[in-house]
Structure formats: structure tokens, C-alpha cells
Amino acid sequence: MKDIKVARRVKKTLQKVKDDVHSSYWKNKALVVWGKIVRKRDKKCVYCHEVFRLNAHHILPKERYQKYMFAVDNGITLCCNHHKYGSPSAHICTVWFFKFLKENYKKVFDLAYERCYNYGRPEKKYNFKLEYERLLEIFEKMNEKGS
């Protein structure tokens, strides 16, 4: 009997979270789709051309530049080594990363540089569910083109 009550409470809580379009549930789902779009677009690590163990990296950090968190052009594909763990790594050595962008991806660097002066928190709360649906639509269109 106790297990049934707990299961009902968990189900009710989960439903409340899903009903809240500003919840981290929808934010995380949107970020997963954002990462899939970025990795599918680039297909390989932009630094070493590795095709396995790929990560989508936010050029401008999503914590500080929330306005561009779901902008597909704010993402770039890196392998695990060049994303977080290796040497050089975009998270450990940001100077290297931006120098690499400036030399090899001038348009991406210029866009990021321009956005640095137009940053900040969005004026209103994000509707993460809406962002998720928008990104999912983009991803589905990419899959249609690829098939």
C-alpha cells in the first residue's frame, strides 16, 4: 500500500514538472536536442577531425550568455579530448579555443565577439518547452534532408 502511495506521489510530482514550461526538465530536453543538431551539422571534431565521442560545445557559455543558450550557431562540435579533458581543451584553455576560432572560423569568432556586447539574461523567463519543440523541428528537418 505504501509503495502505491509513493508511486502516485512521484507520478503527480513529475506531471507538475512537465506542466511547468520553465522547468529544468524542458531545459535539459532542449539542450539534448541542441547538442544533436550541432553534432549532426559538423559531423566531426572541428579541431582534430575525430568522428567518435563527439560533444557539442557552447562557444559562449550558456550560464552567462543565457540569451544564446539554444542558438545553434553558438555551438561547435569537439571530441571529448578537445572539449573538456585533453590538452588543448576548450573548457580548460579558453584562450587557445578562441585563438583557434579566430584563425580557422573567423565568421563564428566574429559572431561570438559581437554577441559578447549584447549579452545578459533574457527579459522574461524562458519557455523551455517552446525552445525544445523549435529545436526538435529543426532536428527533424535535418533528418529529412539527410535521408
Q: What does this protein structure show overall?
A:
There is one protein chain. The protein is mainly alpha-helical and 147 residues long. It has one domain. It is built from six helices and two strands, in the order H-H-E-E-H-H-H-H. A two-stranded antiparallel sheet has the order 1-2. Helix 2 packs parallel to helix 6 and helix 4 crosses helix 5. The longest helix has 19 residues. The protein is globular. It starts with a helix and ends with a helix. The relative contact order is 0.15. The model has no long low-confidence stretch (mean pLDDT 87).
The radius of gyration is 18 Å
Helix fraction by DSSP (H/I, runs of at least 4): 55-70%
Uncertain runs are none
Structural class: mainly alpha
Q: What's this model, at a glance?
A:
The chain has helices at 2-19, 24-42, 80-85, 94-104, 106-116, 128-146; strands at residues 54-58, 75-79. It is mainly alpha-helical and 147 residues long.
